[in-house]
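Q: Start with the shorter request: fold the first protein.
A: Done. Sequence, then structure:
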Amino acid sequence: MSILIKPIITEKATNDSELFNRYAFVVDKKANKLEIKGAVESAYGVSISGIKTLNYPIQRNTKFTKKGLVTGVKSGYKKAIVQLAEGESIDFYNNL
């Protein structure tokens, strides 16, 4: 079971990484902060000073169209925001 699913690379997350040394990841829903900390430290070789986690629920939507009632589901996920120690950084683009 992989704890880290993917890094979040958006405008807001990139701004946080440049200014505040915080990085965001989509993680496994059942992972706790200690497991996330160990996974990030082993994957990227950095030391972590703090972690915040956010659980996003499943989003359901319904539309009335010509075809009738159309429903859609967007799956829920867990996001972890990792605060790195002073002087540490992660480069996501070095192995592309």
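Q: Next, the second protein, separately.
A: Sequence, then structure:
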Amino acid sequence: MKVNQQVTVKTDGGPRRVGTVLAVEEFNEGTMYLIALEDYPLGIWFFNETGHEDGVFVQPHP
């Protein structure tokens, strides 16, 4: 996923939410995405953990 791409994010106890990628930071353990959501227009960080399905919070928007 890349900057300006629309994605969905998994949040606690609710349906997936649509947002836009503002920044991407790669790490050995996975990737951090700064996502602008309606409630958080300046962005909130989500982490996709490499190799762990339960640790994937950001997915491309269909």
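Q: Describe the second briefly.
A: The radius of gyration is 11 Å. The chain has no helices and five strands.
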